[in-house]
Amino acid sequence: MAVIIKKEPEQKTITIAELLPEVIAIRKRGMRVCQICAAWVNEQFELSYTFANDGNYLLLTLRVVIDKDVEVPSITPIYPSAVFYENEMKELFGVKVENISMDYKDKFYRIEEKTPFGPESEDE
Amino acid sequence: MARKHKRNIVPFGPQHPVLPEPIHLDLVLDDEKVVGVIPSVGFIHRGLEGLVDKRDFKEMVYVAERTCGICSFQHGMGYCEAVEQIMDIEVPPRAKYLRTIWGETSRLHSHLLWLGLMADAFGFESLFYQCWRIREKILDLIELSTGGRVIFSVNQIGGVLKDMDAEMLKHFLDVLAEAETEVREIQKTFMLDYTVQSRTVGVGVMTKRQIHACGSVGPFARASGFKVDMRKLGYEAYPDLDFEPVISNDGDCYARCDVRIREIFQSIDLIRQAAAKIPDSELAAKVKGNPDGECFARIEQPRGEAIYYVRGTGKKFVNRMRIRTPTFANLPGLCEMLKNADYADVPLMILTIDPCISCTER
């Protein structure tokens, strides 16, 4: 019979200042960045950075809650493969991400509407 | 005197013969070698995730299914998984088995579609016809059991909408036995033919280390020895079925063909196991209330790990639904793979990640 691994995902809410040290620690554990997403909740951005440990199928999510105009540091210096997730978050939601290794400047998604899922779009 | 190379940027797509869907790559070329890749997407972005404000959490199953025409069933299933986990719904065992059977059938038709496209890309048209002829049988099975060929719409929160009787299951197994024999024939051509090997062996090599660094998933990753398959998480009927992730260690285009062909046999085997063990039960559990909480559900789609994030606040409309599709996760790997590639190999190499732009443009 197949060995099935079933584990509860782990979630941790952190501040912006803690983001990069936490991501460095996760990188040292050999985890893979598997998604980054934004949600506009209670007039704030809720950013979820999800990492996977493929050895034991464990999922770890770092949650950062920020105000609309606060800049969040890019994790691309630690995880270069996060570049598309961060550009997506920036272009679809309007999250201000600073120092992305390859900042597309709103050209990753060839869409006409600026930040279609962002707070300004909701106000309309 | 050293020859001076001039760097050029050559646009690839959004319209290209090997790509039925639009993606744009700016290829930075040094003579005929690719030295850099800058992808961009969004030509057909539909903003499906934004429909959470307009469709309630039950209707969102149909929205999720419309993310893609190839892995439509699995998108619906992944979304249901996430909502069921939030609402703590125990899906009846028969529904779990049926989802597994339809999920594996989707994988079969997706892999056969890809093999056909791959054969077409390297100019082997009769092989393309053979792959799609077998795929047609699989699509007929899907149509017979669900009523749809592209969008099945048999998932619902808490279970499934349709059942398969013993006669239908027997028909499934008979057709799959035929298909298995025919896939063994095309396997010989894909794996042993000189022309196929000359285009795929040693082309687009990705090491296991590169795959991990790029966060790649699915058959693209498993072809480089990355033994990860989300079905091992134990969703649906997979805990009751015996299987191991299919891997190869070569990491080239040939290995990706090999992995996908062997996954076809694996899927047929999983359907056989599921059909032999399928229990009798209700088809769906009752759903009371609205989702209140959040969940990241992961499933193994034909192209690899897909993540469904759903966040509910106890209301009929969920606050956020996010689908991280396997093709999006494979974009960094694609860029890495194309570096130092010959320009002539680019179309074929892009195809080996099995890009699904429809999924990416959710």
Automatic annotation (TrEMBL), chain A:
The protein's matches in Pfam families, at most eight in alphabetical order, are given as: Complex1_30kDa (PF00329)
Which Gene3D superfamilies does its entry note? NADH:ubiquinone oxidoreductase, 30kDa subunit
One function term, GO molecular function aspect: NADH dehydrogenase (ubiquinone) activity
Report the residue ranges that make up the NADH:ubiquinone oxidoreductase 30kDa subunit domain in this protein: 30-99
Q: Which InterPro entries match?
A: NADH_quin_OxRdtase_su_C/D-like (IPR037232), NADH_UbQ_OxRdtase_30kDa_su (IPR001268)
Under the heading SUPFAM superfamilies, the entry gives: Nqo5-like
Renumbered to this chain, the signal peptide range is none
What is this protein identified as?
Answer: NADH-quinone oxidoreductase subunit C
Species of the source: Candidatus Pseudoramibacter fermentans
